[in-house]
Amino acid sequence: MFVQPNLDNFRRNFLCGLRILCRWLVSLSPSIEASNSTTIDVIEKLPDVFLVLALICCSSWTVWSSSSCKQINIKEVRPHSVSITEFGAVGDGITLNTKAFQNAIFYLNSYADKGGAKLFVPAGRWLTGSFDLISHLTLWLDKDAVILGSTNSEDWPVVDPLPSYGRGRELPGGRHRSLIYGCNLTDVIITGNNGTIDGQGSIWWSKFRNKTLDHTRPHLVELINSTEVLISNATFLNSPFWTIHPVYCSNVTVQNVTIIVPFGSPNTDGIDPDSSDNVCIEDCYISTGDDLISIKSGWDEYGISFGRPSTNISIHRLTGRTTSAGIAIGSEMSGGVSEVYAEDIYIFDSKSAIRIKTSPGRGGYVRNVYISNMTLINVDIAIRFTGLYGEHPDDSYDRDALPVIERITVVNVIGENIKRAGLIQGIKGDNFVDICLSNITLNVSKNNPWNCSDVKGYSELVSPESCEQLNERIFPDHVSNCYKLPYIIKSSDVIKSSSNRNKVAWLQSW
Q1: Domain count of the fold of the chain
Q2: Which listed residue, 57, 250, 321, 389, has the most CB atoms within 10 A of its CB?
Q3: Residue 142 annotated among the catalytic residues of the structure
Q4: Given this model, what pLDDT does residue 77 score?
């Protein structure tokens, strides 16, 4: 189904709603970035407020559905349930409950072949170190339940590095295990009535800044080599490192979550699908010290050797702000990244909206990326592709392993108070090719809105006009070079642009 909305009315009404939301979010930021009970009450309101505004403002743009993710084969009703209190846990925020979580999950393992079980975490502040999940388990957090990560690094055991990284991401050798951890699992759910998982990451951020880390910092949630995973209806705060990290996973859904880590906290990504396939992320609010979503697939020679790509990654209805990028790919992408679909994205008060990060020595590829329907407010660089990102695990990487970046399509974008439209810099002798931009209108403050080098592509209906390397027109000759670019050529679809050239007007209703 294709529609031709009144873009002036849409733009005015939509930005009005987004400005109201953004100002409200910014006004809350001091309290949001603290970790206390008031914060939790405030955070619970964020997703609902945003979705109401989005539905009102976007009705002419998008056909909305309750979920864009394919339903995965997991059991939402478990035949057996226990409370963490039955295993001696005390929710006072002081008592360490690691053994209680471990014992409860060990007990529930006997129900794995009987339809699975649910571990209920009631209201309270449940301090714990790292603990493992099991297959066929639902970890359910009640409304006022807070799982608190211990501030003692000894409660986060050190485990082997991931084979696709060859070492810890920050330091050679092992890495601290995540607070909530699972390996070789199936049918796992982390959900509830918007309970909270708080990593209390400030001690880790201080160690990073002071260069006193002994091992790479832990993630908040990490699932390895697992399938049929659902993470929903929960709030994640103050991760020591990346917040949600599915690696070597298949069939993962992350929906209706709020992730908040203070601006300035180092490398605190939101959601990082890593060498994983069939991942769906939707209806999330994220505010972090690094990328909101970063798609990865291994690091240099280790990622090339491991050879597991990230593919079929879909992102729907994401809103947030960051000191880095809204949606990033890389920089670790040596196993390859492809078939990425993102739509209805709202980024404000951020450094960049879309970013691809790679380097000579990475190898791998990023191809078939389609990003549509973005609204940007107060963003430094709307589109940023970097071919010289650097950062290598050791000196053994192959300097001749050049990445392939191709068929990256960005359509239907509006932006207010943007400093620079695009900084798109490939690698000399290894051009980024088939970069397609269409129907993009940005209010840009820089006199030179685009800076492009070692790239080749096409553009249509882009304001300010894109750089020379992308000035070949998409229609009619280059549509096939743009990924998933739908269009219809009919007399009613042809309109006049400001330069009096005929264009094809098209939007897809998702």
Answers
A1: 2
A2: 321
A3: no
A4: 81
